[in-house]
Amino acid sequence: MIALEKAINPLLDDNDIIGFSFILNEIVQECKNIPKSVAFHFKVDPKKLPQYYQKITTPMDLGTMQQNIKEHHYTTVQAFRNDIEQIRINSELYNGPAETSQYTAKAAEISALAEQMLEVCYEPHPNFNYYYFGT
């Protein structure tokens, strides 16, 4: 019965990375649900925008992040946060600031939502430079 419950709810798993990955995936999914955010769901197609990869040396998108989550590449909140922020940085570098680019404004919205959801799920540890799962 316990095994079935763990299969249904990954947050019950004894392996912390399973629960952590589940939460991160939920955050990315919510970011993908933001209206008109599809430009950030997948890698930029180099055939459609060949100059993109000349300007952007550290590409990142929500689909890549989901793959990283699936493969358990994120072991800290900060690593996840860095990739979300990289999406916004890349958009600003390529499209211009949020004040003049609808793409960068949307990337900033994605970043803000992810940050808001992280704050709900995690809280800073008072004595260390990392986050722990809030209870």
From TrEMBL:
GO terms for molecular function: histone acetyltransferase activity; RNA polymerase II general transcription initiation factor activity; TBP-class protein binding. The keyword Cytoplasm does not apply. Gene3D superfamilies: Bromodomain-like. GO terms for biological process: RNA polymerase II preinitiation complex assembly. Keywords: Bromodomain. GO terms for cellular component: transcription factor TFIID complex. Residues 32-102 form the Bromo domain. This is Bromo domain-containing protein.
